[in-house]
Each structure stands twice: as structure tokens, then as C-alpha cells.
């Protein structure tokens, strides 16, 4: 994919976690969407949580989650704040594909609305 970053593979051992953050970088041609692929099951822990919207995604090998990081007007969407919970038992492997704005104009047309 031309307008995406290279696949980033991450491995978390026991206690491994990712602090709450948003993936948007506030740059031109920002990360419009995140595609997060779970490459392993995790025995206990390791969920990806989105506290602002009350969503918890438990890792399941072969599954993936996709979300938009930006509003249609290009502003970062703070509701996308998320974290990787600590792995308590097992091992977590994920791969991230960050898709950028350029090239997505016809797939996700912009709008002037500040909430859409
Ligand atoms: O490992 C996770 O569940 C989340 C990873 C993440 O948010 C990131 O790499 O930006
Ligand atoms: Fe993230």
C-alpha cells in the first residue's frame, strides 16, 4: 500500500504494555486509520482498550481491528485514545499498519464538520 507505513511488528512479554495514546501524529498526511492485527492469542491480559468509548478488544490470533484516527475534517479524534493492557500470562504479538490520508480522498471524503 503506497500511502501506508511499513508493517510494524511488536512483541510483548509478561508485563509488556502500551500506555494510553492516540496514533494520530498531527502532521500533514496524518495517520487516517490504524489496522491492528493480532498475531497471537494471549493467555491472560494484553487487551487493547479504548476507554473513551468503552471498547475492549481481546487478542485473538488472526483477527484484526480497524479504526479511523481522524475526523473527516482531518482533526485528530480524541475518542480514539487507546492502550495495550499488560500481558499477565503468555506472549502477545501484534502488527500495525498505519494508513495515511493521501490516497484515501475517495474512500473517505472529507467534511467541514468538527465531529463527523
Ligand atoms: O498492542 C496493542 O494492543 C496496541 C498497540 C498500539 O496501540 C500501537 O502500537 O500504537
Ligand atoms: Fe496505538
Automatic annotation (TrEMBL):
Domain of life assignment: Eukaryota
Name of the protein described by the UniProt record: Fe2OG dioxygenase domain-containing protein
PANTHER family per the UniProt record, alphabetical: PROLYL 4-HYDROXYLASE ALPHA SUBUNIT, PROLYL 4-HYDROXYLASE SUBUNIT ALPHA-2
Annotated InterPro entries: Oxoglu/Fe-dep_dioxygenase_dom, P4HA-like, Pro_4_hyd_alph, Pro_4_hyd_alph_FE2OG_OXY
Gene3D superfamilies, A to Z: q2cbj1_9rhob like domain (2.60.120.620)
PROSITE patterns for the chain: FE2OG_OXY (PS51471)
Entry keyword annotation includes Oxidoreductase: yes
One Pfam family named in its UniProt record: 2OG-FeII_Oxy_3
Isomerase recorded as keyword: no
Fe2OG dioxygenase domain mapped to chain residues: 3-101
Organism per entry: Phoxinus phoxinus (Eurasian minnow)
Record key words, sorted: Dioxygenase, Iron, Metal-binding, Oxidoreductase, Vitamin C
Cofactor: L-ascorbate
GO cellular component: endoplasmic reticulum
SMART domains named among the record's database cross-references: P4Hc
GO MF, one annotated term: iron ion binding
Amino acid at each position: 500500500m503506497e500511502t501506508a507505513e511499513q508493517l510494524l511488528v511488536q512483541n510483548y512479554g509478561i508485563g509488556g504494555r502500551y500506555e494510553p495514546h492516540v496514533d494520530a501524529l498531527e502532521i500533514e498526511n496524518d495517520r487516517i486509520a490504524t489496522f491492528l492485527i493480532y498475531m497471537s492469542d494471549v493467555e491472560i491480559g494484553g487487551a487493547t482498550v479504548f476507554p473513551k468509548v468503552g471498547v475492549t478488544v481481546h487478542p485473538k490470533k488472526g483477527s484484526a481491528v480497524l479504526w479511523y484516527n481522524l475526523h473527516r475534517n482531518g482533526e485528530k479524534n480524541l475518542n480514539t485514545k487507546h492502550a495495550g493492557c499488560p500481558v499477565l500470562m503468555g506472549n502477545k504479538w501484534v502488527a500495525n499498519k498505519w494508513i495515511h490520508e493521501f490516497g484515501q480522498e475517495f474512500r473517505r471524503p472529507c467534511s467541514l464538520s468538527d465531529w463527523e
